[in-house]
Design a protein that fits this description.
Elements (H helix, E strand, L loop, with lengths): L1 H7 L8 E10 L17 E8 L1 E7 L8 E7 L7 E12 L6 E12 L8 E7 L5 E8 L4 E10 L8 E12 L8 E22 L5
Antiparallel strand pairs: 1-11, 2-5, 3-4, 4-11, 5-10, 6-9, 6-11, 7-8, 7-10
């Protein structure tokens, strides 16, 4: 504090100064609670299907709490399911390197035929220059009840200005063929929270 007073007291008026640091928080993702928005906040899904049938979308009856967003892989009559789902949302970021970034997300996994290996969920970030980073990853070989993940993200992921994409990626594999066999994951409460720090400098006394 003494150094700050000396540096800003250029008029030699013996005033002292109050310096405060305030957090400024932003959360650029839209529709984080999966409420079924089909406009600008929608999550957009594509698939890569090796075998089986893919279904996906908003689930009004399941969530933490409901609604949520689901990926479901169902076996074919003569093949197990092997499907990759990509659910994307883009956001614009131009605020410079943040002080800290927190990723928080919930997931659930279930099914009547979950392969013992290969089932995986990644949360991936695409930066404006096309480079990518996997921010978080989980694997599962049996049902998982609703689980919340909170991850501190390296701030150097956000050195660029422009359009970023957050991707919910899952690879789902069933254990047995037959059209009644499936594996499903659900997502909810997906937030990417940025914190910046704003300095405020003020006199703590007045000139008489």
């Amino acid at each position: 504090q003494a150094e700050i007073d000396a540096r800003v007291n250029i008029n030699a008026d013996s005033l002292t100064w109050d310096v405060t640091e305030a957090e400024v928080n932003t959360a650029p993702l839209r529709n984080s609670t999966m409420s079924g928005d089909i406009g600008s906040g929608a999550w957009i899904t594509s698939t890569s299907i090796t075998s089986g049938t893919a279904s996906f979308g908003y689930n009004s009856t399941g969530g933490n709490p409901a609604p949520s967003y689901f990926h479901k892989a169902t076996s074919a009559a003569n093949k197990v399911a092997d499907i990759i789902f990509f659910t994307n949302q883009s956001f614009n970021y131009t605020l410079g390197i943040p002080g800290k970034v927190i990723l928080a997300w919930d997931y659930e996994a279930f099914g009547n035929s979950i392969a013992t290996t290969g089932n995986q969920i990644n949360i991936t970030l695409f930066r404006p220059d096309g480079t990518t980073s996997v921010l978080d990853s989980v694997t599962f070989s049996s049902s998982v009840s609703w689980t919340r993940r909170i991850i501190s993200i390296g701030v150097n992921n956000f050195t660029q200005n422009g359009t970023y994409v957050i991707q919910l990626r899952s690879r789902l594999l069933t254990a047995a063929k037959g059209t009644s066999n499936f594996v499903q994951v659900q997502f909810d409460n997906v937030f990417l929270n940025f914190t910046h720090y704003q300095l405020s400098v003020e006199h703590n006394s007045t000139i008489s």
